Amino acid sequence: MPKSEPWIAWVQGKGSILGLLLPCLTFVPFLPSHGALPSNDYYGVLEQVAVLPTDGTLPHYTTDLWRWLDLRSNEHHVALPVLLWAGNHSLTGGDNRVLSILGIVCQLVVARLLFLLVPAAARARPWAAFVTQFALAALLVTPAVAHNVVLGFSGSFWLLANALAVGALCAQQRALARGSFPWLALGLCLLGAWTYSTTLALWPILVALALTYRDRGRDLVPLAACGGLVLAVHGFGYQRPGIHPAPTQSVLDVAQYALSYLGGPLAVHDAMAAAAGWVGCALLAVGTLVVLGAPAPAPAASALGAWLGLAALAAINALGTAIARAGFGPGQALAPRYACVALLFWAAVLAVSGLAAWRSRPGSGPWRALHAGFATVVLLLVWLRGAAVYEGYLQRASLQPLAAQALRLGVDDDEALGTLTPVPEQLRRVVPFLRATGHVPFRGGTSSRIGEVLGAEVLGAAPPPGLQGALLSLRPLDSGWLRADGWVRWPGHRIDALVVADEAGSILGELVPSLCRPELAEVLGPEYLDAACSGYLRPPATPENLRVYARRAGQGQWWPVADATSASGRR
User: Fold this and answer.
1) CA nearest 477: which of 418, 420, 428, 536?
2) Whole-number Cα distances in Å, 517 to 489, 494, 510, 525, 561
3) By the 8 A CB rule, do 264 and 314 touch?
């Protein structure tokens, strides 16, 4: 027997695991590029639980249990993910890439749980198991959810909530099939309620699923009671965020927004997204009727409830978001952060239409082929839509080193800090806590080369071939610093440091190299996409007496950059 046969058998037996992990290649090779600094609501939430004592004791997170239980991000209770942030803060300094990994793991958990909802007969063969699991994983671990993965804070909210919600649906489906009380589902629902408000939609869904079993009336009272209690706690003290519009009462506006929300991962325009949402709803309805009308659909019918519950989870969130956000306009429904919920809807659409098309009935071959083609089109649209989303967030993450430098130096530069949060003031308020606790970017100290003098022994005499650049602007900031923006390019070499010195060789500031700025590429050419540089200088400094020096990775020599100011205006 050939030696390779055991490996072939192993691969065939583990085909579903291979199908689950393959889509991770979308994110894993680029994890270092996601940036170490958490973004957006992280800082607004952090200031609610961070304590910086004035009595000389060490900074810490609050031990006030009520503050944790009532911790909100906008209208969402978020105690559980913030506890995870606190643990990550202690272990890694709060590195955002750990949160990115958490988001990917949550998506894998969801993809695996949904795979187990597929009737066993439909995934019995190794190739069928691989294809089914790969399709589900590719739908969820996709560039379309880049917002929730690259900005790790969102992954902690949305993707963890999704994993708990899908886990609750699967746990209740299992409990109903066994005739036992869904304790696990109840526990996951309670955890979800303190993760993100998307899981609030679970309570009516669990009650509805219990109603489908005539002998499960005893489950309704505890489920309804817990759900009512959670909703009451959520509503207690709720205030509409000031930046949000008043709830929309126009039925047409709500419908358009909700449909655009559901179709958002497949389209770049709100009208196209709304049309996709209509198609998904229609297929879900038709597929449900076909499955229920089949002569002997026992395995399919038993799984149908959970898939419809999954679709309802996404639809209720789309409707609730529409009521609260439609005032922003239908285009806001395509916000990338919503994609992770909308994709659960499409997983349900593909599953229910698949249950209808792949049922055991003579002459169903053409319908199976049609369903396979439809699933392929959905996956292609999601990935094509998501590619641009992922690229945009990677470009944003590439600007993080400048924000990190501003934080370390204490420079008030809202433009740089805007890559981390739309409310820089929230970030500035927690900087003392971040600095005192060694949080990114203060982990490892805050040393700077500013004030050092470049001696003749480390200076190259003349610019080496190909090393060119230009300082395009030098502007004063309110904090007394000067912000320098420009570009430096050295083809074939990786620049790991840039400094700006005066005529005497005294370093006035450091520039962050290799920043990704599409506007620079539009002027100079696509090869300059990641050639931008920016940094902060100590005055006095004038363009006439400044010289930029570059250091190649792994070397100690500093080389003068040839001034290419005249080239900065060419196309």
Assistant:
1) 536
2) 13, 18, 18, 11, 20
3) no
Residue 389 makes CB contacts below 8 A (sequence gap 6+) with 143, 144, 146, 147, 336, 339
Minimal CA–CA distance to 308: which of 337, 276, 345?
A: 345
DSSP string covering 488-501, please? EE-TTS-EEEEEEE
Tokens of 70: 């009532």
Residue 113 CA to residue 108 CA, distance in Å, equals 9
**Tokens linked to 135:** 């399709």
List, in sequence order, every residue forming a beta bridge with 468; answer none if it has no partner.
489, 562
Tokens of 202: 């679970």
Q: Among all chains, which residue has been given the structure tokens 């004035």? A: 54
| CB burial of residue 571 (10 Å; 0-12, 13-18, 19+) | exposed
For the beta carbon of residue 28, count every other beta carbon within 10 angstroms.
13
pLDDT digits (tens, 9 = 90+) for 250-309: 899 999 999 999 999 999 999 999 999 999 999 999 999 988 886 655 555 667 889 999
**DSSP per-residue codes, 276-336:** HHHHHHHHHHHHHHHHHHSSS-HHHHHHHHHHHHHHHHHHHHHHHHHHHHGGG-GGGGG-G
Enter the pTM of the model.
0.90
